[in-house]
Structures are given as structure tokens and as C-alpha cells.
Amino acid sequence: VGLELEPLFQAWSYFRRRKFQQCSDLCSQLLERPPGEQVAGAGRPEMPAGRGAAWSLKTRALTEMVYVDEIDMDQEGIAEMMLDENAIAQVARPGTSLKLPGTSQGGGPSPAVRPVTQSGRPITGFVRPSTQSGRPSTMEQAIKTPRTALTAHPVTSAAGRCVRLGTASMLTNPDGPFINLSRLNLAKYAQKPKLAKALFEYIFHHENDVKNALDLAALATEHAQFKDWWWKVQIGKCYYRLGLYREAEKQFKSALKQQDMVDTILYLAKVYLRLDQPVTALNLFKQGLDRFPGEVTLICGIARIYEEMNNISSAAEYYKDVLKQDNTHVEAIACIGSNHFYSDQPEIALRFYRRLLQMGVYNCQLFNNLGLCCFYAQQYDMTLSSFERALFLAENEEETADVWYNLGHVAVGIGDLSLAYQCFKLTLVNNNNYAEAYNNLAVLEMRKGHIEQARALLQTASSLAPHMYEPHFNFAILSEKVGDLQRSYTAARKSEEAFPGHVDTQQLIQQLRQHFAML
Question: Is the pTM of this model over 0.85?
């Protein structure tokens, strides 16, 4: 009996070991006891302060179960994109906007070599929330695109995602919510700084009630006579979640004046990026680096912005700086690897991906990339075994579809067109919205002389991915061959819009214009 821990200390021990469910259950037992009851093994009546400690610890445990770092969670949903009331200049100066990434001339590979997302940016080497959702140009396009987090398509509203995260944790309390927010006297708790902070995080992350969280933060910062920077950051987070970006900016700036923190700089940069001011965000990061030299998150933030602005060469430089500070940074290694791959240096890319493998990253995407690098570096003995491993490790149908699509490319490369046909068909079995597979199947059908099937496949591809130039160009060539010049011209113009630098498209448009002039 002498070795038995006091229950509150046991709960704290569970919390430190990240066993949050056990911690929460033990705190519930403590809170259910009458205030004057003896605590087993402690030998003294439990004080009300102990109840306060158990209550605070339970709120923290419940928060930690559903905690999502606000810095990395940045998903723009359809509501945020299409119903955005912030007016932004339609014709931005080149290199100053994320909405017109093509305006920045960063010397990166063209869309002929490196695929682009529907927002016009080259695909990145690492999946992040900000790379998930492209900006659809029309409401119709936003609604008809599938909303999975694995594509460059819009996901559902960010607020909705947080609500789902919050409600999932209600299962921890079959009797209903732990704290009834509607009956809470926020002014009373705001005067107890230690309790107030735990309560704020519970309301913000677990209950996802941004309005009540904002009220509590406003009362608490008033009680602290506006001298506590932590509360200012929390108010800024609430304003950001509510879409009040300028108010959020003021709070973060005020917090930075009081206490220089890397996190606050990252929050403020998030506000600027949402307001489509990447140059301001870059300057903020660079000023931050003067005060926090060698801070990996700031260097990485600069690299991400350059990558989103299509300035690939600058992004690669900053990712290399990240690796000088932290040589196991997965994102930097993956992005440099993909940059080398698309710059026609598969052998160097292979070294970076092998490094990831040595670090213990073991997933479908990595083996998929290793397979492609081996194929283009002419190490054919490793190619198929890498793809086999990738298929084995695929966690869902979208990942399986990617592997089959790349196997189709390998088959085209070695000239086995029937295998390629099978691979692209398997891609579509796993993911029916795979525009690239429709396009490549159409090319194979054209080679067989099946004009109608090819035309139908190309129309499907161009409706699924209007940002890709290949289906439009192929459709233009096909229509021109069968004598449908008007359709050919329309498709060629769409191809030119998607990729202005494509020489073959321009030549085709010139030929068609000469035809029309003769008529």
C-alpha cells in the first residue's frame, strides 16, 4: 500500500506519458468524489485546490487528444474561396501574388516537364495543407471536383473540419460534455490566469467554440492589463479563424512587440498569405531570421512561399539552407529531390530519396518516387521491385492509382503498349477522376485508330482537369485530322491558355488561322 501513488499524481504521470484517456478517466473519478472525502493512500482530506488541479488537468488531457497545431492547419474550403469578401486587386504586379503564380519567372521547369495543379502552381515534393486546395476559377468547378485531401481540389470548409475533430472527442464523455459552456462565468475564470489558459485551449480546440474562446481571451487580457503576449496571440488565432484577418494582424503585431516569438511570426505570416501578400510574408520571415538566425521553421516558410510563387530555383536554395541547420528535415529533402527529378537529374534525386529511406520513412509515395528515379536513371533492375513495394504499401485507392499510372509510363517507355493500356485502365479502376490516365488512354486509342473512343476520353480528361494543356492539345490535333477545324481551334486556344509557351500549340493555331483566312 505504501507504494501506491496519490491519484492526482498518478493522473499527472499519465499526462506526462501522453496517456490522455487514462489521465482523463482518473481525473473524472477524483472529481466525482465528495469534496471532504479521504483520498486513498494520501492520508489527508482532499483540498478544494486539489479539485481545481484535477479539473484543470482533465481539460488539458481532453484538449491534447484533439489538439491540432494551428500553424500547420491551413485548409481553404469552398466557402472561404468562393465567398471571400476581401477585395484583392485583380491584376497584381508580376511576382507579388499567389493567385497568379504564372506571373513569377523563377526559372523552374515548364508544365511540359513538371505537372501543375489547377491553381497553376507546379506540384510540390511534399504534401502540406497549403498545397492541398487549389483556387478554382468558378463555383461550378469548385463544386464538381472531388473533395479529397489527396488532390489539388478544394476541401470542405476549414471550420467544418475543426468541428468534426471536436465532436470526435465527445465519445470520451458518454454523459455529455465535460464543461457546459453556456453556464460558465467567463469573467470569474479570466481572473485565474492558470485555469484560464487551460480552459481557453479546451474551448478553442476541443469544443471548437471560437466565439466563447474569444470572449474569455478578451476578458483575460483585460485582467492582465494587456501585458500578457500569450493572450494577444490567442485573440489573433480566434480572429483568424473567424476570417477577421486585419484584426488578427494587429493582435499578432502587438504580441511581437511585447515578446519576440517564432510562433507569433509564423501566425502573422499565415495572415499575410491568406490576404495574398506573399512579399510582405517573405520580408517578415527575413526580419525574423535576423532575430532568430538559423531558425528552421522560418527558412522553410520562405522556401514554401517561393515554391508557391513558382520561383523554384530560390525555393531550392532555401531548402538547402534548411538542411544545413537540420539534415533530417523530411520536407526539405523531398522537395529538393523532386526538384532534381523534374530538372532531368534523376540520379541526384535518387540520392535524396534513398536518404529518406535511410531515415526510416517507409511509405507508398517514397517507393513510387524511387521506382521513377530508377527508371529514368536507367537502373531497370530496381524499378519494378520498387513499384511492387509501393503497391504493397498503398493505403488507399488514390495511392494505388498513382502507382499504376507511373507503371503505365514505364510500360510506354519500354514500348510495351498493351501493358501500358492495362496499367492506365487499372488506374481508372482505382480512381475514376484521374485526368492524366484518360489523356494517355486516348493517345493509345488514337494509335489503334479508334478515333471516337479517343475523342470521348479526351473530353472527359479536359472536363476533369481544365488546367492541363495536354488533353486540349491532343483534342485539337485529333479534330484537325478529321477535318473539324472549328473544334480544333477552340481546343487549341484552351491549350494555349493553360500553357502559353507551348510551341506546337502556337504552330497549330497559326495553321488553323491560315485555313480560316483562305475560307
Answer: no
